[in-house]
Amino acid sequence: MKEKIKIGVVCLARNTYDVEAAIQLYKNTQKELNEKKEYHWIIEKEVIIEDEDAIKSALKFKAEHIQALILISGTFHLGTLALKYSQYLSVPILLWGYPELPYDGGKIRLNSLCGVNLDASNLYKANKKSFHASIRSTVDEAFLDAIKIQYTLNQAHIGIIGHHAQGFYNIDVDELSIYHKFGILIDHYELNDIFHMKEEEHDVEDYMIRIKKIFDLSDINEAQLSKTAILCAKIKKFYHQNKLDGLAIRCWPEFANGYGISPCAAMSILQGEEMLLACEGDIDGLISMMVHQALGLKTPFLADLSQIDQGQNTMLLWHCGVAPITLWDGVSIRSLDTYFAQNRGLTTGFVLKQGHIELLRFDSVHGKYRIYTCEGTVIPMKKELRGTYALVQLKVPVDEVFNKIVENGIAHHFSMSYGHVQEAIQIYGKLYNIPIIKC
C-alpha cells in the first residue's frame, strides 16, 4: 500500500456503570492497536461521556480524514453519542462491545453489549447502515480487512491492453461506475505497446534460465521458448515502468498473430512473481484479483468453471495455462505446450496444489456491482489436460453452485486463491452496500 489507512478510535461510556474498568480495558485496547503498525491510528485517549466531547472528537477525526471509525462501547452510554459521530463522519463504523466482566455486588458492570445494540438500532433506523457490530476482547480483524479492500481499490492504478476478448460482452464494464464505486480510473494501452516494448536483455536471460529449469519443453521449439522469455521481460518492464497494480490483457485473437505466441505462459510465470494479470481483458476479474491480494492472498488468478460432477460433488476449475507457477501441486510435470491458435497458443500445463480455495467475482450489471463468493477444497487429480486446473470438492451441492452462477448472470471468470477471507468479504459487502451472492 502507498499510505497507511487512517482509522479513528474512541471509547464511549456512562458514569452509572463501571467506568474505571472500561478505562482499563480501553488502555489495553490502545496498546493492542498501536502494535498494528500497518495502520495509522487516530486514538481518542480518554473515554467520551458527554455530547459536547463527542462533537469535538468527531471534528478532530474529520480533520484527520479517517477512512473508518471504531466506536467502542466501553459501557452502556448515551444514545446520542454514536449519532453525533455519524453526523460529522461519513465512514464505515465498527461498533465494538467488550465482553461483560464478572458481576460485582449484583450489578452488570459494563452493559457494553446493550450499548452496541442501542447504537446499531439508532444508526440503522437513521438510515446510516455502513456499520458492523462485534462483541469481543480484541479488535475484529475481518472489519479491518474489509476497510483494507476499499482503501486498496481507491489507491489502485490498473490498466488494460486492448479491450475484452472477442465476444466476451459479459465482462465489459462501465468505467465511470467503477470510478464512482471504487475510485479507480483505468488507463488504456494498445497491444503494440507490449509488442514494441524494448525488453531488458538481462531479464530475458534470467527468464530463459528459469523456464528451462522449471518446464518440460518437449512440445515447443526454440523460437517459441525465446518468444516466451522475451515476452516475460516485455510485460514485466511495461508493468513496472507504468507503475501498475494490475493489468488486464486482450490475449486473443490478435496476440498470437501480432507477436507469434499467446501470452498465457508468460502470464503464468509473471503471476508467480505476484503481478496481477487478468486474461481476456477482464477488468472486473482484475478487480476481484486485487481484492484477494489486498487480503493477503498473494497469487490469485482467473479461472473458469469448466466441469461439474454431481456424483462426486466436485467442479473442475480450469484455464488455458495462466495459473501462477507457484501454485503447482509438486507432483505433475510442469510443461510448456502449444494448445490452440494453430500451435501458437503457448500455455503452461500443470495441476494445482491441494488446499482450501475461495472464488471471488466482483461482477457488474447495468453499472451496479454484486459480489459472488464460493469456497471449496482442491483435491488430488492426475494430469490429463493441457492448461492449469484444479479439482475442487464442495460442501454444498455442485448443482446449486452452478445454478446460482447462471441464474444471476455471473460472468465466467473467477478470481481463485488459497486462503480464508469469506468473513472480510461479507463485511465489506455490508459496509459498502454491495449485495453478496454466496454459493
Short description:
The protein is α/β, with parallel strands linked by helices. Helices cover 37% and strands 24% of the residues.
Unreliable stretches covering 5 or more consecutive residues: none
Strand content: 15-25%
- Determine the CATH superfamily of the largest domain: L-fucose Isomerase, Chain A, domain 2
- What gyration radius follows from the Cα positions, in whole Å? 25 Å
CATH class of the largest domain: Alpha Beta
Q: Looking at the structure, what is the overall shape?
A: elongated
Q: Could you please say which CATH topology of the largest domain applies here?
A: L-fucose Isomerase, Chain A, domain 2
| Amino- and carboxy-terminal Cα gap | 31 Å
Major sheet summary line = 6 strands, antiparallel, barrel
The residue-averaged pLDDT reads 95
Number of strands: 18
How many domains make up the 3D coordinates? 2
Order of strands in the sheet with most strands: 10-11-16-15-14-17
CATH architecture designation of the largest domain: 3-Layer(aba) Sandwich
SS content category = alpha/beta
Q: Give the helix tally.
A: 14
| Helix content class | 25-40%
